[in-house]
Amino acid sequence: MRALLKALGPGLLFASMAIGTSHLVLSTKAGAQYGWIMVIPILLANLLKYPFFEFGIRYTTVTEKSLVEGYLNMGKTYLWIYAFVTLISTFTILAALYVVTAGLFINLFQITAWGAGTISLCLFLFISLLLIVGKYRFLETSLKAVISILFIALLITTILVLQKGPVSIAEGFQRPKIFNEAGILFLIGLVGWMPTAVEASGWVSLWGMENLKTMKEKPTLKIALQEFNVGYILTAILAVFFLIIGWMTLYGTGTELSGNAVTFADQLVNLFTVHIGNWAYFFIAVAAFATMFSTCMTAHDAISRVSVDVMQKLFPEKHVFKNTNAFAYTVILMMLVNWMVIMLFSANMADLVGLATFVSFVLAPLLGWMNLKTVMGKDVPLEHRPGTGLRILTYCGMVFLSLFALYYCWMLLV
């Protein structure tokens, strides 16, 4: 147990990164619109995507190399594919996360004097400073506290909601169909971003690398996987918490839910206070903002780290990418680029996120296969390779993601 506690890090960072809009918006909306039945696709997505993320920790713990280096060992083409996905994420995901978090800050805490652009810049500056000065160890330590606060706030909120009981069903309410066009599109979005996109497996691998550097004694593969599993299971539990909250407070009311993440979160908090009482506003506001703030922090760190690692592997002759301050420079670059995206393309943010969603969905099965091929490579000893059961689950996940990707493309074309 002591060894497991010392190894805590990458798994909790994964949980912190994953519980963003996929949980706050999509899980809650799933319960609000379709009821408890949506727990099935949520748990199924978490189960079938598990191997892809687990392989990131497995490969790094055994080889002490990043998954990005594993892609390079397979051939530079695979690394270019991952670099392309990372590039799309660089110019879309961070901007979207920060603008949603800024909007939440304004709406939840009634800070109306400044606009979303100004609040986003303040968040960028504050988080960038934390990442540059504190580095990985501060990120890990601080997010342990954030995750603890978030879990407690959500647990209290969920208990309060369950004690209060479900809202009254509106007269004439009919459950929306899941297997029509609108329902399947919602399922695709829910499954695609639950718990997060497959390319985040490379992020987990780099956190594993940083964790190894901070430890006096290298953890065994068993301990490293146990630590990751703690974070992964926590991610699934929090998704169910958000589902229950949406189901018990909104399902059957006929409430028109906004498609905008910021408006939806504000709408959700106000509905909570009506259902539970105004005194519960603090818990709900803290849970919502902590969710998005921790996601911004971990995503900013991860995309910066993976960008440096990819550039170092693609251009080993360029010494600028090997500079000891390369991470700090990249954090600042990500801040400036994404703030410019917010200021210049705020009206088209949905289109930019749509592009990132398309690329992520279409390439997810390929990235999953790349992860499997990497962890089955010759630099991983036979005894540390995934067993038959995990490989079968991986193939099931690849088929699952492929079917969703094909249907998603078909829906876009017709």
TrEMBL record:
Main location: membrane
Pfam families membership: Nramp (PF01566)
Keyword Transmembrane helix attached: yes
Mode of membrane association: Multi-pass membrane protein
A GO cellular component annotation in the UniProt record: membrane
UniProt-annotated location(s): Membrane
Superkingdom as given in the UniProt entry: Bacteria
GO molecular function, one term: metal ion transmembrane transporter activity
Keyword terms of this UniProt record: Membrane, Transmembrane, Transmembrane helix
Listed transmembrane segments: 34-57, 78-105, 111-133, 145-162, 182-209, 230-250, 279-303, 324-346, 352-372, 392-413
Record-linked InterPro entries: NRAMP_fam
Protein name: Divalent metal cation transporter
Organism of provenance: Flagellimonas hadalis
